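Homework-ish question, so no full write-ups if that breaks the rules, but can someone show me the predicted structure for this set?
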Amino acid sequence: MSAFPARNKAALAGFAQSPVQRHAPMTLGAITIATVREAVADAGLEVSEIDGLITTPLFPSLGSHAAEDGIALVTTNWLAQRMGIVPVYQENPQGQLPGAVAMAVNAIHAGAAKNVVVYRALHNPGGSYHQNDAPKASGRDQWVMPQGHHGPIAAIALAWNEYAQRYGAGEDALAPIAIEARKNGARLPWSYWKDKPLALEQYLAAPFINDPIRMFDCDIPVDGAAAFVITSAERARDMPHRPVYISAYSDILPRRFGLAHHWPYDEIMELGALGLERLCQRAEIRLSDIDHSQIYDGFSPLSLFWIELLGLAPRGEAHRFIAQGGIDSDSPDGKAVLASGGSLGNGRMHGTPQMIECYLQLARRAGERQRDVKLALACQGVPNMGGSVLYSADAY
Amino acid sequence: MSSTVQQRPLPVPDAQSAGYWNAASRHELALARCGQCHMFAHPPGAVCCACGSIEPAFEWMKLSGKGRIRSWSVVRQALLPGFADLVPYVTVDVELEEQPNLRIIGRLLDGIEAPLVPGAPVAVCFEDIAPDVAVPAFRLAAG
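A: Not a homework solution, just the prediction itself:
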């Protein structure tokens, strides 16, 4: 008996991913309904058999855009009404995808719901994503906005430059992340970047946004939705596809109180390490037991941070590791940590590419990309603000 | 074409921040210090995160304004009103000398070509952005 009673008690039974588009002709709500229907059918279920809905509805824009339900975000309430579902369990946590998966696992293990759909829907509002016209800065904003500091790209630029200066990473150090993500994303049928890999020359020719962060170090805002069916391990074994068991999760960690859009590098690493330590304790594994880790890459420095947290390169060495082909998915010696294409290679999907890659590989549904792997990890977000979920081919 | 210069976002002082903005308007850097444990908190929250006091009785203490650069970035896009004529500009993450890891973010007014290294000394200065409203910023300082 595991120390974590819910270990491998819930499983992924099906999934769907909508086309990832810059500006979709359908509303995000309509896309989400279509995607959830497809995921439910993929699991061999009827919509009437879904009794749980969970999403992280966050619309992560800091710009002056309306956050209208069904348009810019899709809550479970909106979706349930329009799909004719009356869920016995619905939640809209403000965290990230790993937290939503964790809630589904807990609900199923507790018997609160039988068949849960976890989905993530993301919208591109058009215009500048983070442009903010606010004439005043109140509350937490007043400590940074009048000063000229605003938004997540500014935040990651400061964190990355602290790393780069401390460990001697050059101006081109992040290029292998963006190029590898785009290479793998270009091979995915739903990706915004399908058939559009990124050449080093293109990467270097693109402008800096916040030096040392270049344009292609940032994921592109998109319209898209992904959905997953999570059910009990027992029920999953009677469904059409091979079950993929959820072994453990690490949810978002409480940040130290500080300035808005200030992500100190040392705090990211300290709390990120704690999250993975807890995940390993729950799963009763070592990090080295994981044979397919999928790292997050919404901003490319985050991938380097995850590589080091996972122990694939020593602290301060990930930039050398990737420069030497360490993450080349086409090399037998490479760690294919961006096989999912990530956010840089799919579009801003906030963790669904990593989760889909883990699912497809362990369910042995990855087609030409199929690898012989048993234990896969999906990482999300800034390591201390996202979390991770461990999936297993076996209910060990 | 309008030649109106947009106003930068104006701070809205509140019970937790009035002391900071009052001092800034006099071109002084003052931060909140917990009346119980005497640790600086920036920004000051509802409670003291250093000692856990729910009655922190924060006091506004004038600081030297000296610190060292932990990190920096060049901002190329104006995402806020009033910055279009200022880009590109440098922001710095400064660790103030009064307390380890006491950090403040502001503009560095030496231009984007200024040679920067981690640990470079800086001193606070102020940008007057409206009548009686000044915002802390930084300039490179001697060792």
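Now go work out the reasoning yourself. Hint: Chain A has a mean pLDDT of 96.
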